[in-house]
Amino acid sequence: MRKNLSIAISLTVLTAAITFGQAARSVGTLSTIDAAAKKIVITSDAGAATEIGLDDATKYMRVKPGETNLANATAITLQDLATGDRVLVTGSPATRVIVMAKTDIAAKQASDRADWDKRGVMGKVASIDAAAKTMTLTVSSGMPGSTPKTVALTATDKTVVRRYAPDSVKFSEAVAATLGDVKVGDQVRARGAKAADGSAITAEEMVAGTFLNMAATVISIDEAAGTMKVTDLDTKKPVIVKITPDSSMRRMPEMMARFMAMRMNGGSMPGMGGPGGPGAAAGGAAGGAGAAGTKGGPPTGGPPAGGAAGGGAPGGGRPGMGGPGMGGMGMGGGMGMGGGMMGGGPPNPSQMLDRMPAAKLGELKPGDALIIASTAGKQAGQVTAITVMAGVEPILTAPSKNRQAMLGGWNLDMGGGGGMGQMN
To answer: Which residue of 44, 144, 310, 369 sits 20 to 30 Å from the alpha carbon of 200, by its own alpha carbon?
Structure first.
């Protein structure tokens, strides 16, 4: 659904190299292959389908994601193509079909994501000195009640800097920028050489953007238009939220929402290791109201907390919840907790998000509570969603101050690592 930035760049460079004196016919995803009729259909990123004829003189070449030189391409045949491959076609009928195999793309994305997770940092800009090429980031763990830490970021003349475009949720559409374009309050994700204690990083690559975090309730849904009208709970004003194919919609499992509400109020929840305080009672009531809308689904993360292993990537969850009354309780039917939500290290908010069950616009109804992360829009009162998280009624009953801290902790991914809105 989302394109890796390195893939987009390499295709762009290849297009420029190949089409010097020769117009490129089409770039996109291979959606249909008809070898008998000698034709293929390519779907562009905008969704337009183009049928392209082939002949016996057509040459087929495969390049690795990130490659920008055809000298390293491998000759293949029509039979080696597969739907889902990324292709660049020149000529009419096609004289040359340049292919990036979907399997290679998936492997590249997994590698990039792992590198961003290992060598990356994400936070809000607290201060910046563009002349000195330094800034201070405030980094949240994403867990209510936790204390944010500060990270000193240093850029060099070789640091690649990009910035999200207004109303865009695609990391592949981030535009080239300078350190001077980054502002206090922006969200930044960077990767590079990190200090052993994580307190500093020398950035090789960074992406910045102005993002909005909003607690809202649904007013109405227009599924055909891909929009919803919501009430911003802080401003009390209506906002139109546009949902695109690149927007991520998730539903937080009820137990997880109740747990976070409890943490935000400094208490505990009934039946989860101790008597619930006033905040927990409010969260429990709201959670009960929202439970009917929660739909189960196949596990997408690692082992469920306290349960058996789920599907998907291994190593995501942690068995047990580390407290009385919590053992054996699968959080959300198999959702991994992102490497230690309940213990054993800080959670990774983007990994936690990825393991939540998917939601659909048509499943929402008036009155549902949402947490929405979006890019800043060009037009007042309208935003384009990066992530919409439903099932958060317990969280939104928390005191306003704590709720804002929670929203800041889920300023979701931004695209630098393959989930971050929008690396892939």
So the answer is: 144
Q: Is the dihedral of CA 305, 249, 172, 32 positive or negative?
A: positive
Q: Which residues contact 412 (CB under 8 A, 6 or more apart)?
A: 248, 349, 350, 353, 373, 386, 387, 420, 421
Residue 387 CA to residue 234 CA, distance in Å, equals 18
Distance CA 390, CA 388 (A): 6
Cβ-in-10-Å burial (0-12, 13-18, 19+) of 403 comes to buried
User: Tell me, what amino acid is at 25?
Assistant: R
Phi, psi angles (nearest 5°) of residue 260: -65, -40
b/e map 299-328, b = 16+ CB within 10 Å: bbbbbbbbbebbebeeebbbebbeeeebee
User: Measured in Å, how far apart are the chain's first and last C-alpha atoms?
Assistant: 7
H helices of 313-368, in order, are 349-354
In the three-class reduction of DSSP (H, G, I as helix; E, B as strand; rest coil), residue 117 is classed as helix
Tokens 């690559």 correspond to 205
Reduce the secondary structure of 139-195 to three states and give it as a string.
ECCCCCCCCCEEEEEECCCCCEEEECCCCCCCHHHCEECCHHHCCCCCEEEEEEEEC
Residues 231-259: tens digit of each pLDDT: 999 899 999 999 988 788 999 898 888 88
Q: Tell me the per-residue pLDDT of 258-278, one tens digit each, with 9 for 90 and over.
A: 887 777 666 544 444 443 443
The answer to whether 32 and 40 are in contact (CB under 8 A) is yes
- Between 284 and 389, the more confident residue is 389
Residues 6+ apart with CB under 8 A from 148: 123, 138, 139, 140, 141
Q: How far apart are CA 182 and CA 64, in angstroms?
A: 32
Edge-to-edge, what's the strand order for the sheet holding 39-43?
49-53, 39-43, 24-34, 86-90, 96-100, 59-62, 74-76
Q: Give the whole-angstrom CA distance, residue 114 versus residue 348.
A: 12
239, burial (CB in 10 Å: exposed 0-12, middle 13-18, buried 19+) = buried
Q: Name the DSSP letter for residue 243.
A: -
Residue 268 CB coordination number (10 Å): 19
pLDDT reported for residue 147: 79
